[in-house]
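Final report, results section. Input specification for complex C-07:
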Amino acid sequence: MSPHTPAALQFARVHGADASGARKRARGRLHNVNLLLEPGVYGFVGTPEDGTAALCELCAGARAPKVGMLTVRGREPSRDPALRRSIGALLPQPALPPFGRVDDLARRLGAEVPWRDLGLSTMAERKLSRLSFGEARAVELALALHLPRPVLVVLFEPDVGTESIDRGAVRRRIASLSEAGVPVVIASADVTSLRTLTEQVFVLEKGHVVGEGTALGWPVVGGPHIVVWLDGADDHRRLTDALEGAEAMAWDASSGRLAVAGDDLRGAARAVARAVTVSGVEVRALRAEGLAHPALVAAAHEHRREAMARGPSGPTEVEHV
Amino acid sequence: MSDAVLGARWVAGRLRSPRAIVALSLALAVAVGAALAERGASPLSAPSRTIEAVWGGVLPLTSLALANAVFDGGVATNLWGLARFGASRRRLAWSATALVMLTVVLLAVAATSLGLVIAYRGLPGLVPDLLASLPVAVAGGAAYAGWVAFGATFGRKGGGRYVPVLVDWWLGSGVGLMALPWPRAHMQSLAGGPVVLDLTPAASSACLWLLAVLLWWGTGRRLAP
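Structure output:
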């Protein structure tokens, strides 16, 4: 990126809140978020209480940060109607114009939505005011992914309430948007879905970005995995030599804990069982961990403690990706 | 489609809701009822007492009821469904507020005319009174609609719309400086009641129009673009 080219998405000391709770109250807040994101697919793991809803609403321009500045290609979405037109957004609460038909809206936006390919062939003819919550979310997701010349796509829990949409088509479209140089931000509490969609994951906890996935051992930490407790490094070596089909592994020598991730939990379990049989290693204990966000948050705290123990060369203030 | 047309279409949809239609029908029914009751009690004072009821009660309460139908949930929140696709929230709000003002003005004209026609039945002086009253009803209706629309930009769900109606009732009944920004004070004065700050009728009318314009402009300016 040239120093004069504005970042695709920049958070500069952003504090803000959403309004997706009961009686329009905030469910979560962001506190002092500093990020510079270039085109790619980014996941933000957390619940709305951790600030995922606030993050999406701020990115889409539904509201302005209370403090700090959020810019998309150097412009503020909350203050720039023309920019908002180029931001595809799926937010916690569907908000569509209360008049006209779905295909009228798509035409007005210049969005060429392949309704049939998405599994929404009957949706195009529907009146916007007659859509149910799930249908409105499905329409918003379809529009968000097919805006002409988008500058940013923001998706809040894209797998929730949008069961009618073909998941494969959504994945392919997200990948093609990313290849076309569009930043895609996906916020979800479901790490498994993020794992299949995103290139990089940030962990949100109580409004703070507490870590970045790769640094925390993503996708082993946070993704569904099997944890095996062994007697020592020798057993660890023998078991890992015999492990086939595991996607990633993380070994903690101090506790004798080996985490094994596969394509999914079942794949990881199968790989561990096969390796134990082949190697003859004695396993002290074994546990399946599907929990995602808490594991990533715990890893983030551990990472921070280690960084502080190492001294002043800790993580930089602004994550530049 | 321009932002102004989008805003007007959105408000038009809200004004066709059962809530708005009931409010408008009820307002006209109350105006007719008040005129009939005043006429039965005292035919000579019926016109002025009918005007008092329509301008002092029907107009502010109907403005509030229409604001509830249109702006419930907050102005910015309601407009987000249009603003997210590239419409300016300000232009949408200006357009929406203008249409609410027009509706309240039409209601004020209809309620005032109906009330006076019934109150004057068989008595001379209907036409001069209509000619004097209708411009005040128009300006007052616009000012009341402006106040409730501006109030709806405050609070998470636009709850600020209740405040101007309450304060108008309280401070607008006076004649001092505090009564100056409230439509009730000027409408009372123009209907022959106590005069606000010794202002002439023309100055009171100008105050009502100035309030309407400033509040219309302020409603849009309160929102981000």
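Residues 89-119 of chain B form the longest helix (31 residues). The mean pLDDT of chain B is 91. This concludes the modelling results for the funded period.
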